[in-house]
Every structure is written in structure tokens, then in C-alpha cells.
Amino acid sequence: MKIMSIETFANEMLCFVRVTDADGAQGWGMTAPFAANITAQVLHQIAVPVALQPFTDYTAVADEIIWQQYKFLGSFLARAAAGIDTALWDLAAKREGVPVAELAGKKRDTIDLYASSMKRDLPVQQEADRLRALQDKFGYRAVKLHPGIPVGRDQDFWPHRTEDMAAAMVKAAAPDTHLIVDVNGNYSVEKAIEMGLYFHELGVALFEEPCPYWQIEKTRAVREGCARFGLPVAGGEQDYVDTMWERMIDEHVMDVCQPDLLYIGGFSRALRIARYAAAHKRFVTPHTSNRSPIFVMGLHYMAAIDNPYPFLECGIEDDSWAAVSYFPQIEIADGRAAVPAAPGWGFTPAPEFLAESVYAVSRT
Questions:
Q1: Domain 3-97+347-363 part of CATH 3.30.390.10
Q2: Which one of 3.30.450.150, 3.20.20.120, 3.40.605.10, 3.40.50.150 gives the CATH number of domain 102-338?
Q3: Where do the domains of the chain lie?
Q4: Which candidate, 242, 264, 190, places its Cα nearest to that of 221?
Q5: Digit-coded pLDDT (tens) for 330-350
Q6: What share of the chain is helix, strand, coil (3-state, %, to 5)?
Q7: Could you count the other beta carbons within 10 Å of the beta carbon of residue 220?
Q8: pTM
């Protein structure tokens, strides 16, 4: 395959990527959200020289981008590679006239979702009531809380908010709600195990990212501590280095692996992690916390992998910056969503977004 041009349409929050091959066929992808205008610059300056070379395997392009630029290895390079990789998947699936999920080995048509709150400092009862109302409206059978201060060194927004928030949610939730608590790396090992026991006694089903993600030995110690009373631990959304992922899976750092499809460097690389995790009997569910097309991509991913966790993350906040950027929006009913059936990813960037974005193009 030969790519003739790679275009980006970026603002600070989002960057869509369009690739065009030698036959004029096109595919749409996106880089990771946030600081996306910087990612677009990295894409054209560092990633494009590799991606515009002829290749036979489109799923290997992101790996080659990262491999060849070892002096610039980092999150922005992986985010840029993801934009190209996801656009190539869209192009390849459209050429075949099938959804990406089918090209990747589709195994299921609908995906159960968990409602993912991003509110960390709302009054406890207000947050619990808000989430219960969303359960009643959309049928979510699972909910995720984000209490505590991200990488906050055991601190809370006010004393005991996390404990009170988890207890209030258990009381307010619909019967048999699957409850997840994500503290975004807030805790030391000792505090995490203490809180894990508290969560377990409340009936929480999953404890996510208890320690700063780069301290994998500490996360493993928490997993081992929580295993003694039966609370699974999840993590991995920030990680993008293959060898680190392999080490975390080999050493059983977490029970549930949560790669971000765009932080990690794209759909191809995330699929490889899912295969490796499944071989080690670990569950997988991607990080898809906002309403951008990453959620659409997450549906395809969950449809294709071998050992999915029962639920996919679904952002519930008013992310208008994300929701207005593309169409059609995913419909949610009875706590689940259908995997898009249109060729490719099944989304199209909104013309208004494209018109207002910063445009750049690289050509062969």
C-alpha cells in the first residue's frame, strides 16, 4: 500500500486524521484527545516520514513509526502514531466494505456499558442521585466513580469524601449495580489496601489505578493485598510501551487491563495487548472516558477481542467539544450499545469541526 497524503484537522482538544492512498481511497482516524494541536505537529514532523513510505502491512505502520524514532519515544509520538493507524484501519475496512470490528475478527454485536463519572468534587448525595438518574434513563447496570485527587498522595477533596461517596452510591444505585472505583493513582500501597478492603466490604466490584501508574511494583503489591479479600485491581490506561505492558501482564500487576486505544499508539497495538492479556487470562476493557470517536472505536475493540471485561467505559459528562465533532452519535439503550455496522469505523467528522480546525497536509 502507498499513502499519498496525510491530513490533520486539529484544535486543542481533538485531531482528526485523513489518509489517502494511491487509488484515491480515504480513511478517517484520530489522535488522542487533549493537547491535540501539539500531537498534530508531532505527526507531521516525526511520524509522517515513516508512514508515507510504501508498506505491505498497515497494522505494522504504528510500530514502525515508534521503532524508528527511538530518540523521540514518548506519549505524543504514540498519540500521533494512533491517528495514522486508526485512519489506516478505516481505509482498509472501507475497501473491504465491512466494519472495522469485522476486519479485526468480530465476535459480538452489542456491548454492555458502564457509566463513567468524571465529577470528583460534587457533594456526595448530589453525585449519587445524578448517577442513579442516568441509570434509570439509560439502563446502565454498571457505574464508575472517580473520587479522590488524581495522583494526590493519599489526599481527598475533603475528609472522607471517597468513603462517603462510595457508600452513598451503593445505597442509591439500582439493584445489582456493578460498581467500579477509580482513584487515578491517588494512593500509597498501605492506603490503597486499606481503602480496597473498605470498597470490598461495600460490594465494589473493581478497584482501578490505585497507585501512580509508573509505580508498577506498588500496583502489584496492592493487587496482591486486595486478592486476599477478593477485590480485582485494574490499570494500564496511561501505558504505551510494549515491554512495559508485557511485564505488567507477565508479573500480574493487574487483573483487568485497560489500554487506551489512542494513548497506546493505535488500534493495532491495542489489539496485540488484548491478545497477550487473554493468553494470560487477564480481562481487557479499553479506556474510553469521553464522547469523542474513541468511544466508537472502543465498541469495535470490545467486539473483536477474546477476553473482554463485561463492560466498556461510557463517558456521561457534557463533552460538547467531543460530541459535536462527528456523527452519528452512538445510541444507548438498556445499558448497551450496538457495534456500528457501516464500513470502517462508522463515524464521519462534522463539517463544522473541520472548517474551524487548523489544517495541515503532508504529501509523498
A1: yes
A2: 3.20.20.120
A3: 3-97+347-363, 102-338
A4: 190
A5: 999 999 999 999 999 999 999
A6: 40, 20, 40
A7: 19
A8: 0.98
